[in-house]
Each structure stands twice: as structure tokens, then as C-alpha cells.
Specification:
about 100 residues
Length: about 100
């Protein structure tokens, strides 16, 4: 039987994550933070970065995050769940500026 270099750290993390407090914290995080990463990986196929270098990777991530955010905004506007719901058709400009 052999042990890996980081087995002790993994066991410590597993012990900490098994507490009720950690489970409650992770349950809150799971709903908020996991969806964008899952969507970017699944819908955009971004499972690894295509560029090399920290600056280029940051730029690539910003493009992916912008695409996700724009898609989410368009989804909200098209479902009428956006900032204005007047029961009548309004333009995108009216919704963003608040003119009714």
C-alpha cells in the first residue's frame, strides 16, 4: 500500500467538509457559483484554456464570462423577468434606461 504526498491534506479536507456547518455553507455556494462554470464548460466547450500566459488566459476567461453574462441578460429580457415588467411590449432601450 502506498500513500500519495497530499493524502493527509485530502483526509483533512474530507473531515472538515463532513461537518454540518461546512455542508450548509457548500449548499449555499453550490446554487450560486457552480451554474456559470457548468454552463461555460458545457455550452461553450471551454474545458481548458486555448491561450498560454496569464494575461492571455485572463482575457480568454473575460470573453467567456462576457458571453455567459450576455446570454443570461438576453434570457432574462426575453422571458420578461428583467428589470421592467409592464405587461406591454417595451424596447430594450426603455428597459435599460427605465423610460416607460
Amino acid at each position: 500500500m502506498s500513500r500519495y504526498e497530499h493524502d493527509a491534506l485530502q483526509e483533512e479536507l474530507a473531515r472538515r467538509m463532513s461537518t454540518a456547518e461546512a455542508k450548509a455553507t457548500y449548499a449555499r455556494r453550490r446554487h450560486v457559483a457552480e451554474r456559470p462554470f457548468a454552463m461555460i464548460k458545457h455550452h461553450y466547450g471551454a474545458r481548458r484554456f486555448l491561450m498560454r500566459g496569464l494575461g492571455r488566459v485572463r482575457q480568454e476567461w473575460q470573453w467567456l464570462a462576457t458571453a455567459f453574462n450576455l446570454g443570461r441578460l438576453m434570457s432574462l429580457f426575453s422571458s420578461r423577468a428583467g428589470p421592467v415588467s409592464l405587461g406591454r411590449r417595451t424596447s430594450l432601450l426603455d428597459m435599460t434606461v427605465g423610460i416607460t
